[in-house]
Structures are given as C-alpha cells and as structure tokens.
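Thread: Newbie trying to understand structure tokens

Hi all, I'm a second-year student working on a class project, and my supervisor (Dr. K.) asked me to get a predicted structure for one chain before our next meeting. I've only ever worked with sequences, so writing a 3D structure as a token string is new to me. If someone could post the tokens and maybe explain what I'm looking at, I'd be very grateful. Here's the chain:
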Amino acid sequence: MSIETTTKSAANGSSSASPRQAAISAAVGYSASSPPIEFLEKTSESVFGENVFSKSVMKKRLPKGIYKSLMQTIDAGEKLDSTVADVVASAMKDWAVEKGATHYTHVFYPLTGGTAEKHDSFMSPTGDGGTLAEFSGKELCQGEPDGSSFPTGGIRQTHEARGYTIWDVTSPAYILENANGTTLCIPTAFVSWTGEALDKKTPVLRSMKALDAQAHRITKLFAIPKGGAGDSKAFVASTAGPEQEYFLVDENFYYARPDLLTAGRTLFGAAAPKGQEFDDHYFGAIPDRVLSFMFDVERELCRLGVPIKTRHNEVAPGQYELAPMFETANVATDHQQLVMLVLKKVAKKYGMECLTHEKPFAGLNGSGKHVNWSLGSSAHGNLLDPGDTPHENAQFLVFCAAVIRAVYKHQGLLRAVVASAGNDHRLGANEAPPAIISIFLGDQLADVFDQIKGGGANSSIPKGELTVGVDTLPPLAKDAGDRNRTSPFAFTGNRFEFRAVGSNFSIAGPLVAMNTIVAESLDYCATKLEDATGGDDSKLHGAVQGLLTEIINECGTIIFNGDGYSDEWHVEAEKRGLLNNKTTADALPALQAAPVKEMFSKYNVLSERELESRFETYVEQYCMTVRVEANLTKKMARTMIFPAAIRYQRELAATCTDLKALGYDFDTNTLDKVTGLVKDLQDSTAALAEASADGCEDIRKCCDVVLPAMLKVREAADALEAIVADDIWPLPTYQEMLFIK
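---
Reply by user tm_fold:
Sure, no problem. This is what the structure looks like when written as tokens:
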C-alpha cells in the first residue's frame, strides 16, 4: 500500500492521520510474499546462467572455428577477428529471440558511475508489409549513443556529439527480463569520436592488458625448467570479488523522506534510543521479509550468471551484505553494476527501497564495497597464493613485494579513486578504514618480510590447530595470521582486500588504479631482476633477495598491522610520512600529480587528457552533490521542520497561557528551549543560504564552508526532534526506519 492510498483512507476515517503516521501504518501492515514457486522447484545449479550467452551456449551454437577464435580472444587476450562478428551476431540474435527478446541494447558505463543503455528493435520491415528479425555483425560490434550528453570532463562539447559503443567480447551478453518482455544486453566499451575513453570499462580493459604484460615478465623469470608454467601465454588477469553492503527501508518511509528520495541519505535525524551498540544485528537471524527479498535477488542474479556466494545481516540495524565469488576484473565490474540494479529492482517488489549510499544514517555504520583483488591465470593459478611456506615461494614474494611498493608509491592515487561526497562521511568514522592508506600483511607475512629486511627469510609461522576444550567439537585448522577489519588494504590469505571503496561506487576506478600501479611496480621488479641476472638463472635467487630487501626498506612504512581506528595511528602515520587526505577536496588533486599522469600514459591506460577529464568530472560531481544536499537541507528545514517546531511552540505557549489564567505556578523551560532552537534553526538556515548563494561551484568552499553550514542546520533540527511532540514531527525517525521490517 502506498503512502498516498494510505493517507487517503486514513483521511476518510480520521482527519488526524499525518503522512508520517500513515507511512508507519502501511509499513507495519506490509505482508512479505514468499519466493516464487518455480524457483523453489529448481536448484541453483539448474538455473545458473540460463539467461547468459555463455561459453557453453556459444560452443553449441557457433561453428567450431568461430568458437575457437572467440575463445582465443576471451581466454588468451588475443586480438578479435572481425570476420566472426556476423556469425556470432546471428547466433546471439536467434538465442535471444528464442527467449522472447524483441530488442537489444549496448550496455555501457559512463562516468556517472551508473549503467546506461539505448534499446533498438531486432525487427526490420520487409517488402511485403511484414517484419523480419535482423541483427548484423556491425550492429553487434558498434553502436552510437550521444557522446556529449554524459559527463566528459571537457573531452566532448555539446556540438561534438559523436560517440561509439564497442562490443566487449570478454564479458558475456545476457537477457534482462521484464514483465512485458525481454531484452538482449551486450556489455560494451564507450569511446568518443576521437577514440578517447568516455566510460569506466575501457580503462579497466587497458589496465588488464598492461598488468598481463608485466606479470608475464616475472613469471617468465621463474619458468624453471624452461617451458614450465612461467612460459605460458595464458592471459594473466586481475580478478575481483566485490562485497556489497546496503540498507533496506520500507518504501513508505522512503517516500516520506525527501532527503532519502533525492540525496540517498538522511540530512536530518536524531539517534534512535537503540542503535547498533548491542552488536545484536550482525549475523543475526534475517527477517522473513528481507530473506524473501534475498531469495529473489539471488534467483535473478543466478540466472544472469552472477556467482553470489554469501548473504547476511551487517553491523547496523537495517543493513545487509551479499558477496560473490571471484571473476576476472572486467566481468566482475559488469556484474557489480548488475548487482546494484537487481537489488534496487527487487526491493520494490517487497515494498522496500535499497540504499547503497555510503552513509545513509548518521551515527550508524556506513556501507562499503570491499573489493577483493588478486591476479592469476589458468596456467599460473593464483599468483598471490603464498602456500604453506611463503618464505620459500620466491615468485609469490616478488608479486607481494610489488603490491607493497605499488601501494606505497601511489597511496595518494588509491585514496583519490575512492573519494566522493558520500564516502567522505564514512572513511575514518570509526567503522570504516581511515583515510590513511596502509597495508595489513598479517603475522605470517609480516614476519617473513621482517626476516628479509634482516638479511634473509628462513622460516614461516606455521598454521596450527585450534581446540576449544569441548570434546564433541572437532579441532579447527588455525590460520597463520589474524585478520584486520580496520585496514584499508589488507592481505587476506591469497588476495588483497581494498576496504575503502564506497558502497555506491563502480569498482572500475579502484580496479584501474590497482591494476596499473601493480603493473608499474612489476615492470620495475622485472627490469631489476632481468638486469641483475642477465639471463643467468643461477643469479635469480640473489637478485630476488636484493630486490625484496630494497623494497621492504624503502616502502615498509606502508605496512601497519595495528588498529587503524585509533588516534595513535594518525600520529604514527604522520611520523612515517604517510598521507592523510581526509576529504575528497584533499584527495582528488592526486589525479593531477605528474607521476600519476606519466604512469597512466606509459602503460596506455589513460592519456593525460583522459585523466584530466576524470578529475574535472569528479570535482563537478562532488560539487553537484553538495549543492543538491544544501538545497534540500534549506527546503526541508523551512517547509517541514520549522513549521512543526512552531506548531509545538504554539501549543506550549497556549498551555502556559491557560495555566497562568488558572493561577497555576509553572516553568517555561521547554518553551524556552524550543524557542532557542527555533531561532538556531532559522539563523543556521539563513547562514547556509548565504554560504551556498553562489551555487556551490568551488570544491574547497563546498567542503570547508557549505558542508559545515549544513551540519549547523542539522544540529538544531535534530535537537528539536528530541523535544517536539511525536505526533507533530513530520519525518519518519531512525527508530521507525531502521527497526520496522
């Protein structure tokens, strides 16, 4: 039941029901439906990927030679043979039409961070007045959306509109279903008429190519005897497994909150009497309505070939998480965008809204998108797997050292690619990693690198066995090191987890940064080892020892295994010379640093002009976000909170007048407090209006002046919420939004 219908029915029966009260009634009265029966009758295995033009589908439908050519491109990174496009297009069209598709779309990912698509029909008119389903290789390979109507950072002007979408053969096409039909979705890159990247996808593919080239130089050195896996041409791909945190709120509350509806976060809201302090929500029993939603989300994603593995309650009330298995970086990027779309779409079916903003509720844990990152290939396996004795695994140590060096050298860049107005509310807020970029290695690897620093590693802390003193419980294999939830870049067994990424982000930017800085670092390591050995394998051990010692001595200050939330770490990090860019305004200039420009250009990931376009786009997006929030804050303060406050003020004043007329003694403490807060609200709103009068165009002013002015308005409003009569307060409260499921 919507707010509108609830309010109308309430009005028919009682004139006293407010929109907020109607929203509460509708939320409490909602009945969750069960997962679709047809899904319950099938196993996940039987439906997984059923709507994906997967390798197995292509193998059945394509001629052997065409299929083999495509697999060389997908698995080995070889150049796509353009002659195969017509055959693939025909097979793809037939498959899609059999599944009910009438249209196709090139799906791409502009610099908005969202998903974009333009739908075209398969149908073409015939001479006899009928239609025929057609889809050519050219239509598969290339589309033409407007290149100037998306953020470009100056690369394209309004009068320079041409842009192209280009089929990404390495990311499978899929069918997206709607109640009224289905659409064939083709993942693509998006570039301008000049060939410059206007999207998130193109730099990911370029960075993967750069990483593959440099990783092969390292594995080739360790190919002993020659002809081993190190000599393999199998594509070394970065892989990612992004965890997604999100909040769910009843849609009736969502539509009664202009700030949630427009900004994705609450600009006002006093703390609920109970928050997350009992730690009782984390991994708690999942409410039936939410579990039904999760089943449905997983059904949709399963059919789209997205390998979701985990679901659970997160720390804050109303907060949840899902996590997938690892996939290659570009496919993981595409699938992550699908995850966010499906979460939001399915939530509506259950009368809820999914919030992916990094900090929708002040005072509660925000939401991140922990990007688990590694690299490897079918021939090499996971190149960040240390094995049981990492001190003996020289190839792993070189790759691990390369990551350490990369993070140390480019800590400013890593902070910049997770910078946004939303994430600024989360980073460093005693629940997320701090704005200081550091690496957690764990006890085992930290010990190995300490030994290397001292002259050579001779041992590794072994895994143990954990017993808990209960005979009926089996002994557990104990890892050689603990985990650290406060580290922004943590080693977690066979991968690094970049925990600073915001929940509303495309993971493309962080992946581009990680792939490129590690490629640059592997280039450095490979050159050092090649020069030191001169092709003589017998010199490799000594060369590796020298390289590892150099890196740990120069870059070891980036390693921190302690509490990243502590005040002491901020002091210690400053002593170490580590960056602490607390805001987006502090962080984004790293994109303009000469070493960053040179690196992206050298590895053909982003030209200087493309990188500058991203800087301009991100600055503009930050300022627009603050501008929208400032306008919302003023409007809500003036039209919702101020009227409620003066109505209560009038009630208090009338009560005082009545008591005085009756001769009763009374005090005016509450009236005095409300009157003072109303003045504070008026004054702070006026100050915000003055601070934002120029339209919030300057990033430093947005950060240093406008946002603090917004907080002053909120302070007065939240104080009023704690006093004003509950039946007068116009906005659904934290207590209602977070706990009514």
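A couple of things are worth pointing out once you decode it. Residues 414 and 514 are 8 Å apart (CA to CA). Residues 1-15 have pLDDT under 50 and may be disordered. Feel free to ask follow-ups in this thread.
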